[in-house]
Design brief:
Helix content: 55-70%
Distance between the termini: 42 Å
Strand content: under 5%
Length: 102
């Protein structure tokens, strides 16, 4: 396996890939520390920002076109952005066990 295809890819794809992998690694770290600690909060905000950039950057990737320049993956990106907003709202109000979507 080589990273040559990623190195040759458009910048938006490089950003999308690097931040997505970073978010995965950060997820492991977040689950490994005590919930509510200052480090947990900082890592959580970093994760939210990374995921928002990953979702937003997907709108600049148009390799698969089904409806104009968009594909079903862009629906997932929109859902991700909405989920981040709802999740941050729940975390800030300490409603972390809520099963409601809004």
């Amino acid at each position: 396996m080589t990273l040559a295809p990623l190195a040759k890819a458009f910048l938006v794809i490089q950003i999308h890939t690097v931040l997505a992998l970073g978010a995965v690694l950060l997820t492991v770290g977040i689950f490994a520390i005590r919930k509510g600690s200052p480090l947990h909060r900082v890592m959580g905000w970093a994760w939210v920002i990374m995921m928002a950039i990953v979702a937003l950057s997907s709108f600049g990737i148009h390799e698969i076109r089904m409806v104009g320049p968009f594909s079903p993956i862009h629906l997932l990106s929109a859902f991700t952005l909405w989920s981040l907003v709802v999740g941050v709202g729940h975390a800030r109000s300490h409603r972390l066990n809520s099963t409601s979507a809004a």
